[in-house]
């Protein structure tokens, strides 16, 4: 029985790591995957909100940037700074108000 004691002491640590993975890392990976898919499917005319809170209209996608219309100006925005599409948010709010 003395041979198993070192292994048994590591069981709580292994359980903690598994729980931490399913509660923290996996949801972050799924959220990042959904964000990448959303940015990849942006088309001309889509309304987006940036991480800075600006509402923009998509004009053109490039490799790492998106050309957007911000007021009367046209600017380039890094794809990393797109927070969400306005259509996605408004759809969620409509479903919540129906309940």
From TrEMBL:
InterPro entries: Preprotein_translocase_YajC. Belongs to the YajC family. Coiled coil: none annotated. It is found in: Cell membrane. It is a single-pass membrane protein. The keyword Cell membrane applies. It comes from Helicobacter aurati. It holds the Pfam family YajC. Keywords: Cell membrane, Membrane, Protein transport, Translocation, Transmembrane, Transmembrane helix, Transport. The chain crosses the membrane at residues 6-25. GO terms for cellular component: plasma membrane. GO terms for biological process: protein transport. The gene is yajC. Its main location: membrane. This is Sec translocon accessory complex subunit YajC.
